[in-house]
Design a protein that fits this description.
Largest sheet of chain A: 7 strands, mixed
Strand order of the largest sheet of chain A: 1-5-6-10-9-8-7
Number of strands of chain B: 40
CATH architecture of the largest domain in chain A: 2-Layer Sandwich
Helix content of chain B: 25-40%
Shape of chain A: rod-shaped
Order of helices and strands of chain A: HHHHHEEHEEHEEHEEEHEHHH
Number of domains of chain A: 2
Number of helices of chain A: 12
CATH superfamily of the largest domain in chain A: Bira Bifunctional Protein, Domain 2
Largest sheet of chain B: 7 strands, mixed
Shape of chain B: elongated
Distance between the termini of chain A: 87 Å
Strand content of chain A: 15-25%
Distance between the termini of chain B: 93 Å
Largest interface: A-B, 94 and 93 residues
Oligomer: heterodimer
Strand content of chain B: 25-35%
Number of helices of chain B: 22
Number of strands of chain A: 10
Chain lengths: ~350, ~800
Amino acid sequence: MLKELEELKTKAVSELDGIDNLGDLEKWRVRYLGRKGSLTTVLRGLGTLSVEERRTVGAVANELKATLESGLQQKQEALKTQNLVDTIEQTRIDVTLPGYPVSIGRLHPTTRTLREVCSVFSSMGFQVVEGPEVEWDYYNFEALNIPQDHPARDMWATFWVDTEGAGRSRLLRTHTSPMQIRLMEKTRPPVRAVVPGKVYRYEATDATHEFMFYQVEGLAVDKGITMGDLKGTLFEFARRLFGAERKARFRCDYFPFVEPGVEMAIDCFVCQGAGCRLCSNTGWIEILGAGMVHPDVLRRVDYDPDVYTGFAFGMGVERIPLLKYGIDDIRLFYSNDLRFLKQF
Amino acid sequence: MKVPFSWLREYVSVSLSASEIAQRLTMAGVEANLTKATRQSWDKITVGQIMALEPHPNADRLQLATIDFGQGQSKVVCGATNVRIGDKVPFAQVGAELVDGHSGKPVRLKPAKIRGVASEGMACSEKELGISESHEGVLVLPADAPLGIPLADYLADAVLDLEVTPNRPDCLSILGVAREVAALTKQEMRLPSSSYEEAGPEIQKRVSVEIADPDLCRRYCASLTEGIKIGPSPAWMQQRLTASGMRPINNIVDITNYVMLEYGQPLHAFDFRKIGGARIVVRRARAGEKLTSLDGVDRELRPDMLVIADQSIPVAIAGVMGGADSEVTEVTTSVLLESANFNQVSIRRTSSGLKMRSEASMRFERGISPELTVPALWRATQLMLEIAGGTASKGMADVYPGKKEAKVIRLRTAYVMQLLGLEVSQEQIIDVLVSLGFQCVPAGSENTAVTIPYWRTDVSEPADLSEEVARILGYAAIPTTTLSSELPRQQVDTRLSFREQLRDLMVAAGFQEIITYSLTSQHKLTKAASAENAVHVANPLSTELEYLRTSLRPGLLTTLAANQKYEEGGIRLFEIGRVFLGRGSDLPDEREILGGVVSGPRGELSWFGEKGQSDFFDAKGAVESVLSRLGIEAEYEAGGEDKLRSGRVARVVVGQTTVGIIGEIHPRVAESFDLLPQSVALFELDIENLLSVAKEKQGYHPLSRFPRSVRDIAVLVDVQVPAKKMLGVVRSVPLVSQVSLFDLYSGRQVPVGKKSVAFRIAYQSDSHTLTEEELETTENEILDRLAKDVGAARRG
C-alpha cells in the first residue's frame, strides 16, 4: 500500500509539472483528487487495513493529499498569472491612433472678449446692464448733447428705421451711450455700470469697417468722482487686458457728451512704441474714448452737476482681438467662417 | 485742415520741430499728422555752399560768391549781405524756374553779366523760391543740410494735416492753430497786418445792405474795391493754397480762400457790376426761385434756404456757394467782398440738402463768431489792394442785428481741482486761460471771472474751462487714482447669467457659437420664417440688409450653407441674439433667442466608424440635455409649421408656456438657402420664456440604501403610438425608478403596422429590498397598463 502511494506521488507530481493550461490542470485534479480519483480510491481502501497499518498508511496518504492540493493551488496561480500576461501582451494597441471624438463647441471670439472686458469691470464694482438696439433719436443723440443738425452728427453715420405715422425718429443705436441716459433716468447716484452690446453704423464694409459691431460702455457717477479716477480705472483695465508691461496714455479728444474729453491709447505692441504700420508710425494705438460726464447730460437726468460728477467711456470690442491676434480684416468676425472661428 | 508749417511760423515763433509741434497739438485735442507739401517746380535747385566771397570789382553793394553745388562750382554775383563763407544756401542753376524777386512773376534763370561780371546761377531768397514774400537776403539753410541734394528733397515744407473735431471751428484756421501752438509752447502769437488806405468814396454811397431775415444772419459786412486787375495770384500765395489743398484760380478768388484759411472766416467776392441796384438783401429764397451756382448747376431753391439777393434776384446761396452770374471773371474791375455770419443749422440743412458741402459751409455749420467778420474782411481787402490794385471805398458795410455780449463764466478753483483730480492753483489756471486768449479777473482767491474770447464758440461751462486747463497742462499731469466712492447696490440681472449659462451649455453640447448680422433681406425672412412685423430700415446698405431680423433662421442657415463647402464632418451651430418684432410707431420688441442648427454626419469622421446622419433627434437631444441641466422639464408636442418639414416638428412646452420649437427644415427652404440635400434640424428657444419657467434647484432626492433591480420589457404596439405616451405609462407605475427606451424596431418579424419597443426599467424602493414577487407583480402591472392604455402586447 505504501509503495502504491509512493508510485502515485511520483506520477502525480511529474504529471503536474508538465501541465501548461487550466484545462489539463482540472483533468489532473479530477484524476487524482476527484471523487473517483486515484488518491480518493486509495483512501477509501484504508478500511480494509488493520488499525496499525491504517495509522501508518493513513498518515502518508493524508500528507500526499496535502502535497497534491498545494501543488494544484500553486500551479493554478502560476497558470492564471501566465494567462493574464499573455492576454495583456496580445491586446496591445496603437496608442497613437486618434481617440474617440468628443465634440466640444467654441464661443465666438467676440463673446470671449466681452466676457473678459465685463469681468474686469465687474471686479471693480461695475454692474453689467443692457439696452435696446433700436433706439429713439432722443437717447442716441439729443440727450447726449447732439441735437438735430449738429455737426457732430457726422461722427455717427446712422441707420434710420422707418417712421410710422407721426412717430418719433427711431434708429439703430450708433453707440452704447444711450444707456447712460436710460440708466440715470432710472436710478439715483451712485451709478457704476458697464453696457455691452451691438451697435450699427451706416458704413460700407471693408477690412477695417463693419456696419455692425460691439461696444462696451462704462458709466460711474457719484459725489467726488474725478478725472484721476477715470484714468486709474481705465489704466487698470488696460493693464489687465493687455498686460502689465503696456503703457497707456490719455489725450484730449471731443465727444459732445463728455467734458473734458479723452482718447486713450496704449503703446503699440508690435513695435513697442517705435512706430510701425499697425500704429501708423505713431507708436500708439487708440483703444477707447472717454471723459467726464458733461454737466448738460447730468442736468438732463436731474442730477445736480454741482453735487455729482462722473465719467463715461466706450470702446469697440472687436478691436481688442484684432490687435491681440493681429487679425487684419474685421469682416472675419461676423461672416462666421468656421475655419476662422475654430481658431479661438 | 492742412497747415503749411512755414505759414504757421509767420504768426508764432517756433523753436520745436514740426513733428514735436504735431505731437503737442495731438495730445491737446487737435490730432495732427505730419506730411510734406509737394513742390511743382524747384527743378535744378540744389543745396549749395558758399566757398568764397570777394568784393565785386565794379559795384560796392555786390559780392562775388563761389558756390559749390555738388556737381561743380559756380561763381555768381550776389546782392545779399547776410551770407558768410561756409553757409549752406539754395542754389539755382541756369535753367531753373524761379519767382522774380521784384515783380513776383515766374522767370527762367539765364546766364547773366552783372556790372560786367558773368554770373552763372543764383543763391535764392524765400521769395525767389516761392516760399514766402520775404526777399530780405538769401535763405540760409541749416549747416547740416546735405550738399548737392535737390532742394525739394531737403526743404519740402512740412504740412500739419489736422483732424479738427466739430467743436473747434477756430482751429480750421492758421491763426487758430497758431494760437494753440503759442499756448502749448508758451510763445506769443502775432496777427497779420491788415491796414490799408481807404481812398475811394464812402461805401454807404455805393452800396446798400439789408438783412431781411436776421434769425438766419447775425451779421453781414462787405467792402468795395474798384479798379482792380484780375490776374494770377503771386507764387507764394499759390504755393500756400496748394500746400493747404486748394486750387489757385485767380488773385481775387485766391485771396478769399487764403484769408478763409488764415482766419477761418469764409468770404465771397461778387463782381459788383452784376449786383442789380447795388443792393444786397439777405433773405430766404422765394418759392420757385432758381440759381445757377458757381459749378454751373441749376439749383432749385427752397423757401427755407437763405440767399444773398440783389434788388431782385438771388446772387448766391448764403454761406454755401456763389452764383455763376455774379462770379468774378477776367473782366471784373469792381469787387464787393462779403464777410458775413450765417445761422449754422440753416447752412447745414441747405448744404446737405443741395449736397454741396464746401470749405465755407463746413466752417459756418460748426458755428463761428460774428466778431470774426471784420478782421477777416480787413485782411482780405488789404491783400486785394496789394495784389490786385484798385481803390477801396471808405469804411465797410456792416449790418449786425445779432450782436451778443461776450460771455463771462465764474470759475471756482475748487471745481477745477475736483473735476480733474489735480492740484492746481488759481494762478496756474489764469496762466493757461490767458495764454489761450481768455480774459481773467480774479474775484478773491477762490473764484475767477473768465471772459470767453469770441473765437471760442465751444466754451460755455466751467467744465469746458477745466478741459482747457487740463489739455494745456497736459493730460499726463492728471494723477492715476482708484475709484473710492460708495459702491452702488447691485441689482443682478438674472437674465444675463442665465443666458451665459446657456452659451456654455451649448458649447459643452458640441455647438460652435456664431454671431450673424441683425439685418437681413425680406426674401430670406420670408423663406425661412416670416417677414411679418419686420422692422424696415429707411436707408439700408443693400436689399440684403434691409430688415431687422424677426428670426435667427436666415443667419443660421446662411452660415450653415457657407460652411458646408469646407466642412467634411457634421456642423452644429448656435447663436444667441435678438430678434426684432415691430410694434407700430413704438420701439420694437427685442427678444433674445437661442437658435441652433445641426446637419451632416453625426460626430466627426473617425476610424471608429460612422454613426449616421444627424436629424431631428440630434437637435432634440441637445435641447433635452440643456433643459435638463437647467432643471426644466419640457414636453415635446408634435406640431406643424410650414417652413419646417411636416411630421418632424415639435413645440417645446413647459407647463402652459411654449418656449421653443424643434424641427427639420422643409426641403424647399433648404433649397432656397443653397444647402446640401441632407436633413437640417434646427431649434429655437425664447430665452425670456425659458427663464420664466426655470426653477431654482429645491432640495435633493436622498439616495436609496436598498439595491435596485434592472429588467427589460419588449412590447409590440401600433406604429402610431407615441413614445411619450408609453414612457408616461411605465413611469406612472410605483417602484419604477428609471426607464430608458433602448430599442425600437419595425420590419421583418414584426407584423405590419406594429413596432417593437423595448424598455430597460430599474426598480427600487426607498424602504426595503424588493423581493422577486414584488418585481414580478410590478412588471405585470406595467404590462397590464401598457395593454390597456396603448394596446401593447408583450413580445414573445
